[in-house]
Each structure stands twice: as C-alpha cells, then as structure tokens.
# Entry
Amino acid sequence: MTEAIANTRTTRKPSRYRWRRRARKTGMVAAGLLVLFYTLFPYYWAIVSSFRSGSQLFSSNLLPTIDFTHYRALLADPVFTRAILNSLIVAGSTTLISLVLATAAAYALGRLNFLGKRAVLLTILVVSIFPQIAVMPGMFELVRWLGLYNRIGSLILAYLIFTVPFTVWVLTSFVREFPRELEEAAIMDGCSHWRILTRILLPLMGPALASTGLLAFILAWNEFLFALTFILSDENRTVPVAIGLISGSSRYEYPFGPIMAASVIVTLPLLVLVLIFQRRIVSGLTAGAIKG
Amino acid sequence: MGSVSLHGVSKSFGKLDIIRNVDLDIADGEFVVFVGPSGCGKSTLLRLIAGLVPATAGEIAIDGEDMTEVPASERGIAFVFQSYALYPHMNIARNIGFALETTGIGRAAIRTKVEQVASMLKIDHLLDRLPRQLSGGQRQRVAIGRALVRHPKVFLFDEPLSNLDTDLRSEMRVEIARLHEELGTTMIYVTHDQVEAMTLADRIVVLNEGRIEQIGSPRELYRQPANRFVAGFIGAPRMNFAPVTATARSETVRLTGPGGLDLGVAGNWSATAASIGVRPEALSLATGETAKASGELLRVEDLGHEHLAYVSIADDLVWTARVEPNHETQRGARVGLGWPDDALFVFDGEGRRLGAQAGMRG
# Structure
C-alpha cells in the first residue's frame, strides 16, 4: 500500500510540475494582455473617436472610419497651432535650461567635495516633494513681481521647479558612477577641465542626457495647472490648456471629436520619442541603482 | 633619464595620515615594486609621484628636477591604471593617441606613433575597435600602449594585472618584464601579488601604514627581513611565528615557548628576544631529537607538487609546514617539527629582527 503511494507520487511529480509551470505561464500572459488592454485601449478609443463626428460618436463600432475633418479644422485654427508652438518653446527651453543647470550641478555634487553638499542635495529633493498646489500661491506672486504674468516665460520659470531637481538627481548619480580613474587618465593625458568635460564626460553622458531631457520635456509638455493659472490670453496658451478650452459650436455640444483629435496630435510625437528612447530612459533612470 | 627621489613626503586626508615622511631614491632604469597590505598607502604613494594627488609635505623630484608642484601631465610620466581606464567611446587608435592630440604634432605623426606602439604590443589589428570589444588582456595591452606612446621618463603601474585571470596574468608579467628590458625606462609598480613583486622587481619597497618598512632586492627581503612585518609579508605561505621567553646564559640565549620550544641560540643581542619565526619551507616533520617543537597535525593540503601541513603548536597558534608529498602521518597525530639552525629568525619586542647572523643563509 505505502509502496504504491510512493510509486504514484514519483511518477506523477514531473508532469505535475510541468503542468503548474504552463499554468503559471498562461496566467502571466493573460495578466500581461489585460494590463496592455487597460493602458492601450483608451488611447485607441481616442484615436477612433477623433475620426468621428455628430451621432457617430455614440456608435460602439470598434473599427475607425478614417476621416480627418477634425484634424484639418484643428490645424487650420490659429489658436491651436499657436498653442503647439508655445508648448514647444516652453518645454524646449525648460529642458535645455534644466539640462545645462543640472550638468553643472551634477558635476559639482557628484565629483567635488565641498561643505554642505549633502544639505544642497537634500534641499533639491525637498523642493521636488512639495505639491504643485502648495507652490502655486508663492509662485504666482513671484511671477507677478517679475512681470511675467501672462507670458510664457512664467511657465518656463515655474516648470524649472520640478524639472531641475529631477534632472540634477539623475545626472548626479550618473556622474558619481563615472569612474575616477577615467578622469585621472584624462589628466595624465594632459586634458584641462574643459577638455575632460567636452571630450570625455559629455560624450559618455549622452544617453543619460537624452533620457532625462526627454522626461523633463514630457513633464513640461503635459503640465496643466500652472499653464492655466499664469496665462490669461489665448495667444499665450500652451497645448494642454488649449485642449481643455476647446468649445463646440453651441454650449450644448460637447466637442468630443475635436478634443480627441487634439489629444492624439499632442501625444503621438511624444509616444514615438519614448518608444525610440525607452531603452535609454530605463538605463538613465537606473543609473546609480546598478553597475553597468 | 628618469630617476625619482622622494624626500620627507607625507600625505594626509583630513586627520588621516596615509603617507608618513617617506624618503626614497629610485635610480634611472630601475624596476621598483611597492608592496604592502591593503590600505598601506602604496597606491597613494604612486599617485603622489604621478601628481594626481598633491603632497601635504615633502619634495618629489624626477630626473633631478623638483616636480612637487608640477601638474601630472608635465612630469614626463605615464600611468597604467588598474581598471585600464580606457575611454569607452573612442576606438583603440584614438585611445592610444589621445595624449598626443594636445601636443600639436598633427594627425599623420600621431598615426605613425600609434601604429609603432601597437605593433610593439601586437595589437595593431585592433586599432579600429572599441574598448568593450576587447578581451581583458587586450585592454591591458592598450593601456600599456597609451603609456608607451608618450615616451615617458618613468612608468607607473597601479596593480595592472589584478583584473586578469591567472594564465593571462603570468603572460602579461613576462610581457612587462620584456618591455622593461627593451626600453630600459624606470618603472614603478604597485601590487599585492608576491609573485609579481619577486619576479619583476630590482628592488622591492615594503610599505605598512604609510611608512617604508624595508627596501631591498627580493632576495634580501626574503633572507634578511628587517623586521617581523617584512618577514611575515614576503613569502608564501607566510612565516610561522611564536612568542618566546628569553633567558640569558653565559654565551647563549635560551628561548622557551609554546609547543615545547626550548632553543639555545648563540646570540649577543642588545635587545631581548620576544618572538621567533621559521619559514614553512624550512620546516620538516621530525621525530625524537631533531624535533624542536611539536603539536597536533590538524590537516594536510595536497597541492600536487607539495603538501602543506597545518600543525597546532598551541591552542591559538597554528604553524604551516611545507612537507614532502610522501609522508605517512595521520590527521590528529602528534608530530614533531624540525628546522636547520640557520633558518631561525629572532625578533625583539618591537618586531625588529635580532642579529644579522640568525637566519642568514645566502
């Protein structure tokens, strides 16, 4: 009796584990598909809706009918194109300024030894912890005082508050990992600090700069609260607010189609950029986490 | 010509003294190896000579010229780093020639020099590759090539072979020795590897806690260590030590210690003996009269060409003996240990070796 039980156990074991492994694998795939559907379907539905107008919008047909009416109307609208241009200027300058500031700061914080280095790093971290809404009243006063109200300059200033801490942190951890011997080798080879920075450090920092730059760009591009508060007139609006303020032909019509089309126009380029840079973004963000 | 001389050189990081008042003269063309336990300051001393780290006090002269305040790149020296420190984004040719780019000798001239050096190191087929496409040994050659191309007066090596596996390590060791013979340039080499130190060096500098313990040829350090530290550091497996009590007699000194140690040694020393040392290779398993100490055989390691026997002389004292492979002793047995009289080293309470005659064999 006992022998028989032992026997069946030993013969059943391998197949049971194989079955369990397959079940686990199937479960993982199913869960993965679910997550993909959850994240991608809204965007797909936005694209589908952007091609529709009128009562079509209420159709539950999953397949799109290609119709660029909304896109054409949007791109012909000077307010919207102006908003895109403003967004490009704001996000672009924010990214550029924070990268320049962060590179300098990262070199100092990651390489040099000075009094209060830790305090500076922690202050930078604390700044990025403040919720936007807490910063806003003070920021509003500052913007008024600087005479930047209703100018896109106010947004660049405000966005630096969250892009600079983030870029400084990522780049500092990158610089910290930068092997000291490489720098010493450059010194032995007769390099000045400038030459070390331009010939050795910056080329090697390229991927980190690209990824942090892209993330800073996305942050600035998507921002809504400051953009709504600091800008008064249509010609200075950035794209997220412009989309929010798109109105229909009458107050009873909700302009769902045009809004979806605008969202697609604004997010598609970013998606493409992220897909191109995704590998670098991951390696940039994990700089400092693992050796590589 | 590349002589190097250090005079009263010290280096402190904050309150931590890394190098303490080091005097050292290295002749032109000499191959000097710095050894010492980790943290002894050997790498810092090398960086001081290179100019990568400024000295806190003292003078550093290269080729008779005071270089203490001269920037690293103008001292006429080349540095080979432990991690090779090749520029990852430049190809091998650019890596080797990078130092020449600021000299303004022109692309063609740089290319010629790079090719010359590359063929000397047998890496001329790799010039267009990136460092990450190279094996460890090849990277090491590139690192050496980068040093060679500048025609330095002095080569500095900071544990250059420690990242290589054993086979490659001995191959590169031979290569570096060959290079030194061909070039005749002064080389200073930091390592913690005894074999590298013993085989490469004209003179070895033993460092401990930022001080020079002894300077001498490999043979001198092995046969006439100045103190217990050097005696224990040079030689593998390391020397066996035992504390002893000395009683002066008319013409000899009686040394008694653990494991039944009772030795009469002819010695007329100014200080009192406090410990003795015997190298494992001088020990042999002995019985009866010839045994000078005894203990329990803990374990025998079979290394093929030799056997290492571990004998517990006292509770907390294990001696290592290099014994003949054909011994017949069981683990746990009591064994006697013997050694020739001239293989005995005697040290005083401060670790200094007593009497030039003790332990002198060559």
Summary: Residues 295 and 313 of chain B are 4 Å apart (CA to CA). Residues 357-362 of chain B have pLDDT under 50 and may be disordered. The longest strand of chain B covers residues 16-26.
